[in-house]
Amino acid sequence: MSDPKPILYYDDRSPPVRSCLILIRLLAIDVELRFVDLFMGAQFEKAFLSVNPQHSVPVLVHDELVLTDSHAILIHLAEKFDVAGTLWPKEHDARIQVLNRMLFECSFLFRRDSDFMSEIVRRGFANVDVAHHERKLTEAYGIMEQYLERHDYMAGDQLTLADISIVTTLSTVNLMFRLSHWPRLERWFAAMQQLDAYAANCTGLEKLRQTIQRIGDFQFPASVSHTAVD
After folding, report:
1. Cα(166)–Cα(98) distance, rounded to whole angstroms?
2. Is 10:36 a contact under the CB 8 Å cutoff?
3. Domain 92-216 fold
4. What are phi and psi of 67, to 5 degrees?
5. Distance in angstroms (rounded) separating the CA atoms of residues 6 and 11
6. What is the pLDDT of residues 121-163, one digit of tens each?
7. Domain GST C-terminal spans what residues (predicted)?
8. Which CATH number fits domain 7-81: 3.40.50.150, 3.40.1710.10, 3.80.30.20, 3.40.30.10?
9. What is the reported pLDDT for 223?
10. I need a labelling partner for 86 at 20 to 30 A (CA). Which of 33, 100, 101, 122 fits?
């Protein structure tokens, strides 16, 4: 008997959700998608809280397994569906390096991005100390620039879950703070945008841009080119 189809609870305005959507597209995984509108408070509805008391997305339900963190979801899906075994390497040191970069994404890059975007939502853009957040987020840019000194990808010489995890958050930060002073990071981002699966990031990124602008009563800088949304 085949495994039941995974169910992903999602709002594609969320960068961690978009990382899962990229991997699902990259590996052509058959997943049932269930939308949870974060900006309308759907994550606090009783039915969803029974699935995830943390009231956050993404959530993956796969048979009896319920995962409520995007990084755990990425690892689970790669272990189940990445036949080549390159996105989540089998060799210990390579795998731990990928994990290290994923933890950088969640504890450093995403945390700072979330602080910035959440403050815009709570206070309105006019009341946000943009220079403070720029210093915090461009510090993360400098760290990633160093990660890319010796390798083409965030955790080595091939695409891994580290890149998939980081690119969706980076694309969100890039709505405000451009990458022109970090040439290696800019090249990496351009290469990631050329992946067919990157299209899974574009719709949600644009929806987030419009939502944050509307709530924060401001305009992000003129948009840069993206892979075509489909």
Report:
1. 11
2. yes
3. Glutathione S-transferase Yfyf (Class Pi); Chain A, domain 2 (1.20.1050)
4. -115, 130
5. 16
6. 999 999 999 999 999 999 999 999 999 999 999 999 999 999 9
7. 93-218
8. 3.40.30.10
9. 62
10. 33
Beta bridge partners of 59: 9
**Which helix or strand (DSSP H or E) is residue 61 part of?**
strand 59-62
Instruction: Name the token pair of 134.
Output: 């720029």
In the numeric block, the tokens 């160093």 are attached to 146
Residue 102 dihedral angles phi and psi, to the nearest 5°? -65, -35
CB atoms within 10 A of CB 60: 24
Amino acid symbol at 131 = A
How far is residue 36 from each of residues 17, 76, 96, measured CA to CA in Å?
Answer: 11, 21, 32
Between CA 78 and CA 50 the distance in angstroms is 26
**How far is residue 66's CA from residue 32's CA, in Å, rounded to a whole number?**
14
Question: DSSP assignment of 178-197, as one string?
Answer: --TT-HHHHHHHHHHHTSGG
Report helix, strand or coil for 34: strand
- Taking only the tens place, the pLDDT of each residue in 1-42 is 567 899 999 999 999 999 999 999 999 999 999 999 999 999
Show Cβ contacts of residue 91 under 8 Å, excluding neighbours closer than 6 positions. none
Query: 């970069």: which residue's tokens?
Result: 101
